[in-house]
Specification:
By secondary structure, the chain is of the alpha/beta class. The protein has helices at 9-20, 39-49, 85-91, 140-144; strands spanning 2-6, 28-33, 64-69, 72-78, 101-106, 120-126, 133-138. It is globular and about 40 Å long. The protein starts with a strand and ends with a helix.
Length: 145
């Protein structure tokens, strides 16, 4: 487990860019945290670090955005508006758990039991000041243990 503190949106994105270097096609990243805790900012940094050149915004209404990347595609899923297991099943997100994708999931706390056993867990929390964020990253081997 690694713990980080950022004090600006830019630092949160930079941490995401750095974290991207740990990822490989087939990886799933479960990002959890309260509304406004920096999930989308972090994911935007991850996407930039993975070579995505498109604008990365939260897919709150579209639910899933797919961005071309040098290795295949980065899939950004936002489950904020999902209320039931049936809605989750209808999304078919398990199709993205493949070696052709890196899958980044916001509001993953709603579906942790649905995710592949091997995934990264990123927890975003508010820090002491308005801009500060406490970010915890747990690697798949730490989750599986």
């Amino acid at each position: 487990m690694s713990e980080f503190t950022t004090s600006s949106r830019e630092q949160t994105a930079a941490l995401g860019m750095s974290f991207a270097g740990m990822l490989s096609p087939g990886d799933v990243v479960a990002v959890t945290g309260m509304l406004g805790s920096g999930k989308t900012q972090f994911i935007g940094g991850v996407c930039q670090g993975l070579g995505v050149h498109a604008h990365v915004g939260s897919p709150t209404f579209t639910l899933i955005n797919e961005y071309p990347a040098p290795f295949g595609a980065v899939v950004h899923i936002d489950l904020y508006r999902i209320d039931t297991r049936r809605e989750l099943a209808e999304l078919g997100i398990e199709e993205y758990f493949s070696p052709r994708h890196i899958c980044l999931i916001e509001w993953a706390e709603l579906v942790l039991d649905f995710l592949p056993k091997r995934h990264y867990a990123v927890r975003m929390e508010y820090g002491v000041s308005d801009q500060e964020r406490e970010i915890t990253i747990v690697a798949p081997e730490e989750i599986e243990a």
